[in-house]
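B., you asked whether I could sanity-check this one before it goes into the benchmark set. Here's the sequence:
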Amino acid sequence: MKAYVFPGQGAQFSGMGKDLYDKSELAKELFHSANEILGFEISKVMFEGTDDELKQTKVTQPAIFLHSTILATCLGDQFTPDMVAGHSLGEFSALVANKTLSFENGLSLVYKRALAMQRACEMQQSTMAAILGLDDARVEEICAAIDGIVVAANYNCPGQLVISGALPAVEEACIRLTEVGAKRAMILQVGGAFHSPLMEPAREELAAAIEATNFNQPICSVYQNVTAAAVTSPDEIKRNLVAQLTAPVRWTQTMNQMIVDGASEVIEVGPGKVLQGLFKKVDRSFPCSSAEI
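And here's what the prediction gave me:
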């Protein structure tokens, strides 16, 4: 069974999507359509922008979404998913790929999500940190003992967990986690505390937009971040998508569940190879590849 997976924020690079634009008339049309929907030339930023320009949340999220969804669309009959999943932002790409969302609605939601998250980030000094080399349960235990908001945010793979929260609490957690044996506890260069309670204002904004958007019956299951389980009900998909902003990304659990449910190969659709690397951390022999046209 083929599992198609879609990357999240952090996979962007200058020049992303230019090869698709040059090779495919369909891709060209979709990029032009995206420029109109967003009201600015995101294709120009993707193809020619600096790393700093691409790092802005309002650019990063739609840019990665566009690279992934346009590539999936251009695969045409080669795109034959038995299951899909996306890491954080990538879940929206997965939902366009499995026909739950239209390209236009998916892009509109991603842009609204990006702007809402940006606003939430500006309300309080907050950050995220990668913790390497400790059991998930130990990281959770240390975070729970700290005064202030700091929670497990991304369960990326065994031995790699990202925490998220208010800046002082995350800094304190990094010190304590290093003291109890973490190989690394590294503050990340991100806009704020994604997948933490500090994203509550963004969650409320996004909930209204999602509720007003049409969700179709998907052509295959999506393994959602919040539950790490296969979902096909449009209403359930909506609920999980809203919850995702303040809940952790259970990617380790998602990978394990996809394998248990019969995934025999994983194909990453979008910029970079981060998700393939995470699958290899679960099972070094697992067949992984990148989608190409």
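One thing to flag: The mean pLDDT is 96. Otherwise nothing jumped out at me.
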